[in-house]
Structures are given as structure tokens and as C-alpha cells.
Amino acid sequence: MGLTENTATTLLALNSLDVRPNSAVCVEGTEAGLVGSGQRVAVLAPSGSQVPSNFEGESSVAGGRTLVIGPMNAANLDALRDLLPWLRPRPLGPSTSAGFGDRLGLATPGHVRALRAAGGELAPIFAQQSIREMERTGRSPQEVLDDATWGVFAEGWKEGFGADADHLKTTEDVDACVAAGYTFFTFDPGEYVDDGAEAASASALRAALEDLPWQDLEDLPADMKRRYLDSGLKAEGHEVRFDNVSLARAAFKYGAAVAHVARLYRHLQAAMGEEDFEVEVSVDETESPTTHAQHFYVASELRRLGVRWVSLAPRYVGRFEKGVDYLGDVAGFEEDIEVHAAIARTVSPDAPYKLSLHSGSDKFSVYPAFVRQTRGLAHLKTAGTSYLVALRTVAALHPDLFREIYDFSRGRYEEDRATYHVSASLERAVQPRDMPDGELPALLERFDEREILHVTFGSVLKEARFRDRLLGLVRNHPDHYAAGLEEHFLRHLEPFANGGCK
After folding, report:
1. Active site residues
2. Verdict on whether the full-model pTM lies above 0.70
3. Which of 218, 265, 405, 464 is most buried, by CB atoms within 10 Å?
4. Which of 258, 267, 263, 130 is nearest to 194 (CA)?
């Protein structure tokens, strides 16, 4: 398919419509672009050619060509995907990658600008949201993917991107995201991980092993012991071995989770058919860290059951709280991640997998160690930090609205924090009336205030009095928001762009 950049050569018919320069594109004589600051898209087809099928809008003839201007809706985006194949998400493979969460559906232009500024060859996942976050923001899997795709189109990103159906727990969740067109599926078996294994006595461990779903695991206790107790794993100078207790603890803690991942994987295989897809396995949202032996157990069992995955998110040492930097000893983290990375490169030598850094937003202190030890076999996953940049935009441009949101968030914090790992304190956080307008953006840099605002996003966005004004302000100041995102995400991406192996 012939492709030419069209920024400088947009026809007069589209120029007169004030098409956004980055979005303007020409494929085999058909031109397309987003019109002005409104929610409209224009397609100009050459004489004798048809406008892409199913494209909706008002049609006219300009210079013998057919011009159609229509809304930025799902039907027109599907039509554009047929014309512009780079608007469809695709698997990204082992390349160093980054996922960009977006709770408002307006952040992708800023994400693209940050990615370009970072340089390198980072593979982006622009559409990424968990089912939990979709429920709290009132968005569907299709809306999340479509919003990100419009952002890709607006910025003229043609290098490909992934779409992550994040933290999937059920087959129903999987089906909804398959139908929407996702290519990357993060399985979260956290409800099947038993943290009680870490403190269990020997007798409790023996009893727990009896109750494991051995049929689903396609295994027997004696066979499991033979595999792991007779030999260990040598991984680049590190040796991982089991004894009876550590093996029982690993199986008790993660056995049911492994079985659940295998069920979700086989369901996904059946649903996707011949379509390419990628899987990430996440066991990060637990109280106790994943030991190196437990990582070896999880990866070996998944491999034995035929599961293929591109990245794995263990629960690392230290604390990965939402929206703030790493809490813990950075040197200790690097010592721990060194062995995890060696295991990832050794357990599956024919297909080494990436380690994934969940709750990765703003963990600036550990990025260098993470990239260094993974040697670029790394995936960074961010989420609510883009929402916080939006709040910074509100604080700068509409202080009264920001005060209302912050005051409301304080009232919601104790309830909303229940499903997150956070330690912010209302007592330590300032009252909104105690800050002059000019200092309000600085609240987004304070630990307690930042976490309070981070985890209450769902409550804020369910309130029309906040949602409508917040979205309206960001839409009316897209460059202000995009500039804030570019600056903030550049700090996230530069260590990965400069240290990655791809």
C-alpha cells in the first residue's frame, strides 16, 4: 500500500477545514485528518474512488473528489482502521515496552509526544486499563481502545502499538476484551494466591497440598516432588533449589493461581483462534514478595501446562504504592531483581520473557536497576499517573474546581483505598483551604496528597459535577495537558529508551 506523508501537501479542500497537521495522512490518494479542535474527522477520496465503507457523515464534492466529514465515533474509526492498518493494535514481542494507562481517554497525544521525545525503540501499549478501572470510570473495553486509537491518529503515530486488557480475572472479562480487539491480555490470578503459605506450619503445608487442584494442574504430588527436589535451576551463576518445605510453600501459595491462569489461557486460545495475541501473568498484588524459588515454580508450571507468555510480574521486594516512588532499599531491590531476571532468561531459553514492573508509575529510583538487570527484557506498566497530570492541569487553570475535587477526594479516601496498596494519611495531608491558588499544583508532588487523589479517581469521575467540568477543561486545553504529560512521562521513558536492548 502506497503511503506518503501529507502534512505539507494536504489538499486545499482539507486545508480549508483546519485539519490538525499531525493527523493528516494520504494513502493511495485518499486523504484523512481530524478537523480543528472539534470532534470531527474528514476523508477526501480521489475521483472515481469510494470513501471507506461504513464511513458516516455529510458528503460533498470538491474538485471532482468526494469529501465526507463525520463524527469521531466507533463506526468511523472502524472505517479508518481499514484504510490505515497502523490504527489496529498488534503484538509487540520481546522489545522493551511501556504501557500507558489513561483514565480519561484524552492522554494518548501526550503519551505519543513523550515517546517520541524519549527516542530509542520502545514499543508502546497506548490502550491499557484494568476491568476494575473500567468499572470505576464508566468505560467499556471498546471505549478505552477507541479513545487511545483516536489519540494515535491525532498524533500521526504509525510505528505500531499494543492494547492491554489489564488484570483480567474471569473468562467473561477475557471475552469482552477479545471482542473489542485487544492483543495483549494480562491475567491476574491474585484471588487464587494464598499469602498464608508464608507463615504456615509444616503440618498446615501438608494439608494444603492435599487440597490443591491436582486435576487442573495435570499433576500428582509425587511427580511434582520428583521434578523439583531432584534438581534445581542454575541461572547465570545463581542456583535456585527446593527442599520439601519450600516446595510445599510455593505450591500452596501459587498452585491454584497457576491452574487459574491455565484455564484463562486456554479460553483465550479458543476465543482468538488464529489471531496473534500476547499474555502477561501478574502475581504482583499480594502482601508477600515472590521468592526466587517461587518464581521458578510459577514459570516452570505454566510452561509445563502449555501456557506461553511474553511477560511476568512477580511481587518484588519493597513497596510499590500507587503514584509515588519506590519505598524500600534500592540496592536490595537490585540484588533481588538480578536473580529474577536471570530466572526469566533461563527457565524458557527458547522464548525468554520480560519482567513487568506493575504499579510502575513514578518509580524513578528503581528504573535504572530494573533496566540494567533485565537487559531490556522489560515492560513498564503505568496507570493513574496520567490522571494526576490532568489534575495538575486543573489546579493550574481552575483552582476552585481543583479545591472541590481535592476536598471530595479526602472524604472518599478511607473507603476507596481498600483495594490499593497505599499508606497516605489524611492527618498528614493539608486542607485545601490552607493552600493559596498558586501553590495548588505543588500538592501533586506531595506524598499523602498525591496518593489520596490517585486512588479516589473512580469516585470523582462518577460525579457528573466533577467529571463533566474536568473533561471539558482538559479538552479545551489539550496542549497544556499534552505538555504536562510529555514532561512527566519523559522521566519514565528515558531510562528504558536509553538502556533497552531493542
Report:
1. 166, 280
2. yes
3. 405
4. 258
